[in-house]
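Message: Just now I want nothing more than another pair of eyes on a protein record. I am handing you a single protein, as its sequence and its fold in token form. As I understand it, each token names a local backbone shape. Take your time, and here it is.
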Amino acid sequence: MAAFLVSPSGRILDIDERSAAFLRAGGVLEIRHNQIRAATPEFNDMLLKAIERAALGSKAETLICQGNAPRQTRYTLLLEPSLHGAQPSQGQSQNVACLVFPLGRRRIASARQLMSMFGLSAAEARLARALCHGETLEEFASAQGVKIPTVKTQLRAVFAKTQTDRQVTLVALISGIPPLR
């Protein structure tokens, strides 16, 4: 989702345009005066302390963060010391590579794969993938602009074609399929 390099104080040293656009959106993390900042003051303190620890040590730090909006995606923030092949001297700090990933958005089989494997329609494949990503039937219906009865009909068809009878079984089945891209 986003990757950038910061100094031990959180000053951004290197960032690509895609990552900068993600941070400029300001939902979870943001850029303020060329510094990485969290959306909330409480999390900002945790973030800066984690960056300092990563900069002084040789171990990565991991944080989970969420934006201000309700039901907003949560993210994993990995802070990795940038060693450049050498161990720092005791007490010497180094820059920190920051990687931001959506939490729980694992790669799953593509809609095309599901259509090919199980004979699902495009809409049924989208529903199956949405369930694997934790969406509810209501969220899926709203996102697709269809009514709940339509989604329930699609779900029954997905169950029949995949020979499953529960959402948890369906998700386990699809999650076990290696994704091809």
Q: What stands out?
A: The helical segments are 17-25, 41-56, 111-118, 122-132, 137-144, 148-162, 167-175. The chain has a mean pLDDT of 87.
